[in-house]
Every structure is written in structure tokens, then in C-alpha cells.
Design a protein that fits this description.
By secondary structure, this protein is an alpha/beta fold. The protein folds into two domains: 4-64, Helicase, Ruva Protein, domain 3 (Orthogonal Bundle); 85-274, Vaccinia Virus protein VP39 (Rossmann fold, 3-Layer(aba) Sandwich). It contains ten helices and nine strands. The chain has helices at residues 4-10, 19-31, 35-40, 48-62, 67-71, 95-104, 121-129, 142-155, 214-222, 242-251, and strands at 73-76, 79-82, 110-115, 133-139, 160-164, 176-181, 227-236, 255-261, 267-273. The strands form two sheets. The protein has a seven-stranded mixed sheet with strand order 5-4-3-6-7-9-8, with helices on both faces. The chain has a two-stranded antiparallel sheet with strand order 1-2. A hairpin with a 5-residue loop joins strand 8 and strand 9 (267-273). Helix 2 (19-31) runs antiparallel to helix 4 and helix 6 packs across helix 7 (121-129). The termini are far apart. This is Release factor glutamine methyltransferase. Belongs to the protein N5-glutamine methyltransferase family. PrmC subfamily.
Length: 275
Amino acid sequence: MPTIESLLHSADLPDSPSARVDAEWLLAAALGKSTSYLRTWPEREVTPACAERFAADLARRRRGEPVAYILGRQGFWSLELEVAPDTLIPRPDTELLVETALRMLAATPSRVLDLGTGTGAIALALAAERPAWQVCGVDRIGAAVALAERNRLRLGLNNATFAVSDWFSALDGERFQLIVSNPPYIPASDPHLLQGDVRFEPQSALVAGQDGLDDIRAIIAQTPGHLQPGGWLLLEHGYDQAEAVRALLAARGFEATESRRDLGGHERISLGRLP
């Protein structure tokens, strides 16, 4: 029988920028073990059934399918979340949105809204860190809302709720102290849409018109009707969109507008306060 090390050594993922890490995650899943187990016991033999599953998963990865979709899960913040092909895969850059949101309000009772919640990643991270907050996550895709609810139930976070809503369409009369969103912001002509993992992710969660700002414009336009005076709107956007987003916020009457940089040094989120 093959060993852990021999399977990892022979794993062929020529187009993956993280081939060894991908192979370790896939083999660990096939074995029902952690990646640290692989490194501790490289000489352990692998059963034919586990080796076959590993080979099948490697084949999927060679076709470009993201590891998160193959495994059905992805880590985000301090949480492990179920993911599925009808939702965007949570990314480390979005943790900046969570980190910033946690600094905008005290850890006292507040209503917080996550627009376009997808897996529920942002809403659940905020709910986990702030038990006194009531966090609502909405998405126009029913399957995404169902997935976010499954994540909520598994994590046991009773201060989060999820609902189907096209941005604010199902939230008439509701107001919040903080609104956050990681909306679609990629221009329709961006060549990266044909490359890498994003080929497998839902285009509706990625693309927002010719300049990538259609959904951000819609959110900024509608937010004042759902944000308490003095409340904050936080938006994730593309690495080169910060100036345009700040201008949109200012034009809609938001004050104290600014942008924050991610670990790569890019202005990744912008925010403003409603007077």
C-alpha cells in the first residue's frame, strides 16, 4: 500500500500555486485526519479506499475546482464554514471588514446588517465576537441563505438571523447601527474571471457592471433609509476602487469617509458615517 509521503510526493497539481498545501488538505480529508497528522506520520500506509478518494479529489483540483468546494468547507476568522458552489468562498482579505466593524461599535446591544451574506461568514464572525449584537444577514439567493443558516445552527450562534432579501428589499422600516457588505465588485470585462478558482464561483457574487461599482452604488444610495443617524456603512471593494467608493459615499452625504488597507497594502474597504 502507498504511504502518506509517497502519495504527497506523487501528487500532480501543475497549475496550482499552492500544490503541496492543496494535496495535504485533500489527503487529510480522505483520511479523516489533520494536516499535522500527515507531517507527523509520513510513513503510515494509506488504504486503497482512501487512496482512491484522494486520486479522485486530485483530479477535480487539476481541473481547477477550488479546494474549498471539493472539501465543502473553508476557514474564516475563527470559524469553519460549510461552503457550496452557489456561494462565494470566504477569503482572508474580508477579515479586514470584520476587524474594522468590531471597532466601530461598543460591545453593547446593537443591530447589525450584513448585505449579500453568502455563507454567512461576516455575519457569523461578528455574532461570535459580539454576543450582545443582533446580526442579520441577507442574500437574494435562497440557497445561500439556507447555507448560512446551516452554518449558524452548527456554530450555535443564536444572535444571528438570515433572510432572503435583494439588498434592502425585504427590510422595509428596519434600521441598524452598522451595515457591512462584501458585494460583487469585479468589472464584467476583467480577464481574471476566466482564471483560477473564480471560474467555478457564481458570477452573480463577483460581477457588478462594466466598472464593477453597480452594486456598491445601489447599496450606498439605499443605505440612509436603513441606517440610524450616526451609524456606519462599511464596504469591501476592489484594490483600485477606493477613491471612487469614497466619492460615492461623500456624494450621498456620508461623513468621516476613509479607506483601510489589507495585508497586501491595498485599500480594500471604505466606510462612512451617516450624520
